[in-house]
Amino acid sequence: MTFYTYNGVFDEEKKLGQKIEVDVSIDFPIEDVVKNDDLNTTISYVNVFNVVKEFVKNNSFNLIESLANNLLSNLLNEFKKARLITLKVRKYSVPINGIFDDVEIEVSGKNLCQ
Asked: Are 92 and 20 a contacting pair, CB within 8 Å?
């Protein structure tokens, strides 16, 4: 998922913004749980996208680590059927004097009710 945000430590990042990408991986036992073609028995990727979009749109952090950790908590709370959720957050246009494509953070968390 790709979004334009205003996260960052520096004033330029908060003013000009930058592109971030968010990958979400959800461990959910579809082999055991989804026995028919019923959306109610699974986790809708449309709902996952909408939760991520709303969170990224409505929150701003200095650190992408904070964005990743808070988004992870939000997703775990929203999708209690998930056993494990892993997020990768990539930030582009980072003001670092060097050659690179992006900066990436990965976080994972388990639902305690599983």
From this structure: yes
Note whether 2 and 20 are within 8 A (CB).
yes
Name 20's bridge partners. 3, 91
Angle, CA 93 vertex, CA 54 and CA 109 arms, to 5°: 45
CA torsion angle 108 36 41 52 (round to 10)? 50
Q: What confidence tens digit (pLDDT) does each residue in 17-50 have?
A: 889 999 999 999 888 888 888 888 899 999 999 9
Task: Check residue 103 and give its pLDDT.
Answer: 84
pLDDT for the residue 15 = 85
Q: Give the active site residues.
A: 91
Q: In angstroms, rounded to a whole number, what is the distance separating the alpha carbons of residues 10 and 8?
A: 6
Q: How far apart are CA 18 and CA 93, in angstroms?
A: 6
Three-class secondary structure of residue 92 per DSSP = coil
pTM above 0.70, yes or no: yes
